[in-house]
Specification:
Helix content: 25-40%
Structural class: alpha/beta
Shape: globular
Strand order of the largest sheet: 9-7-5-2-10-1-11-15-19-20
CATH class of the largest domain: Alpha Beta
GO molecular function, one term: GTP binding
CATH superfamily of the largest domain: Adenylosuccinate Synthetase, subunit A, domain 1
Protein name: Adenylosuccinate synthetase
Number of strands: 20
Number of helices: 13
Strand content: 15-25%
Pfam family, one: Adenylsucc_synt
Pathway: Purine metabolism; AMP biosynthesis via de novo pathway; AMP from IMP: step 1/2
Largest sheet: 10 strands, mixed
CATH topology of the largest domain: Adenylosuccinate Synthetase, Chain A, domain 1
Function: Plays an important role in the de novo pathway of purine nucleotide biosynthesis. Catalyzes the first committed step in the biosynthesis of AMP from IMP.
């Protein structure tokens, strides 16, 4: 049985839950391996809409074990708020396990995140202010706090004291904020310890044993390829490894256990936050696409920047992730356009680029080279077979498949988890 890595192939918000929905009851484990509550995704089940932030989408699949891996940064207050909200709606969250090696977000991480963004002014990154970046920075500086530290208050206090030695200098001397005491941080974090303890596990060992006995495991990436800290549009990126390779470091499962990589793309493109976005639409055109697609952040409510499908981005995602299958979402949003532009390349200073330019400067100056495709007016939301789609919609999907570097195995035609056209089995069967 396979291990499948599921990644966003653009700038996030592609609808990664769609792919998990298609796999449905065939999935035994869903693992979140990077990021924190700085992103989210919406899953629609019947007439119910669920906004998930920190929890893996497998939390909504009966019998599936959701796992928060070691590559995630966990804000305990957000975790339990989300669990309580789902439990109140009848969702069983009792199977959730959390890696002992996942790092914690403390109150000072959120404070530093917010004041740093304000300090940067026009050079801001566009973070969500939820402490993600500072928590990852502490991890790399080896002054981070881990979930397992909640099991030993003495060690937790020592680590908090060490972290605040540097953080308080920054807060007081640079940002003119009050110093944070060790006691207030420890008291806050320890208030979650008893509730967290039963969830804490050696998730690397548990996942390896699950694969050994033939379980199907999906590794669900947060954010997306173009926001990856190494391979995205740096510095306008997230603070973790959002590409497929991050599934291994963020879960403790080795690369030779991964069978398939599924990349999720919108039939157009969106981006939240600062940074380059070559196909971005301004004015009325951008607002029309935003309203059509309901493009407002699941976590922040921020309006997303909108643009046309970007082939160089898709090809780049296919290459750096080793994509075996694409899931193309929100095809229904394009219904009613007379023609649909697709960026098939970039022009940078008179030079055509069919692949992503190498430098930040060239990406910043990239002008899309568009090819126009015929649109359609027919409703696609009821389609369940590829042949049910209007001919123009079929041609659009086939063109994107040819241009993007991997087969398009699933096409999303509406927000509900059942509204999918499945062309190929994502498990490769």
């Amino acid at each position: 049985m396979p291990a499948v890595v599921l990644i966003g192939a653009q700038w996030g918000d592609e609808g990664k839950g769609k792919a998990t929905d298609v796999l449905g009851s065939r999935v035994d484990y869903v693992v979140k391996y990077n990021g924190g509550n700085n992103a989210g995704h919406t899953v629609v089940v019947g007439d119910q809409k669920y906004a998930l932030h920190l929890l893996p989408s497998g939390i909504l699949t009966p019998g599936c074990t959701p796992v928060i891996g070691n590559g995630v940064v966990v804000d305990p207050s957000v975790l339990f708020e989300e669990i309580d909200g789902l439990t109140a709606r009848g969702v069983d969250c009792s199977r959730l396990v959390v890696s002992a090696n996942a790092h914690l977000i403390a109150s000072y991480h959120r404070t530093v995140d917010k004041v740093t963004e304000r300090f940067l002014g026009s050079r801001k990154i566009g973070t969500t202010g939820r402490g993600i970046g500072p928590a990852y920075a502490d991890k790399m500086n080896r002054i981070g706090l881990r979930v397992q530290d909640l099991l030993d208050e003495k060690i937790l206090a020592q680590k908090v004291a060490g972290a605040l030695e540097t953080r308080n200098h920054l807060l007081v001397k640079v940002f003119n904020r009050r110093a944070i005491t060790v006691e207030e941080v420890v008291d806050d974090l320890m208030s979650y310890a008893d509730r967290m303890a039963p969830m804490v596990a050696d998730t690397s060992l548990e996942l390896t044993r699950a694969l050994d006995r033939g379980a199907t495991v999906v590794f669900e990436g947060g954010q997306a390829t173009m926001l990856d800290v190494d391979h995205g549009t740096y510095p306008f990126v997230t603070s973790s490894s959002a590409v497929a390779a991050g599934a291994c470091t963020g879960s403790g499962v080795p690369p030779n256990r991964i069978d398939r990589v599924v990349g999720v793309l919108k039939a157009y493109a969106t981006r939240v936050g600062e940074g380059p976005f070559p196909t971005e639409l301004d004015g009325e055109a951008g607002e029309e696409l935003r309203v059509r697609g309901g493009e407002f952040g699941t976590t922040t409510g921020r309006p997303r920047r909108t643009g046309w499908y970007d082939v160089p981005v898709a090809r780049y995602a296919a290459r750096v992730n080793g994509v075996t299958d694409f899931v193309l979402t929100k095809l229904d949003v394009l219904t009613g356009y007379e023609t649909i532009p697709v960026a098939v390349a970039y022009d940078v200073g008179g030079v055509r680029h069919d692949e992503m330019p190498m430098t930040q400067t060239d990406v910043h100056h990239a002008t899309p080279v568009y090819e126009e495709f015929e649109g359609w007016s027919e409703d696609v939301s009821g389609a369940r077979r590829f042949e049910d789609l209007p001919p123009a919609a079929q041609r659009y999907v086939l063109a994107l498949e040819e241009l993007s570097g991997a087969r398009i195995s699933v096409v999303g035609v509406g927000p509900d988890r059942e509204q999918n056209v499945v062309r190929h089995d994502l498990l490769g069967r």
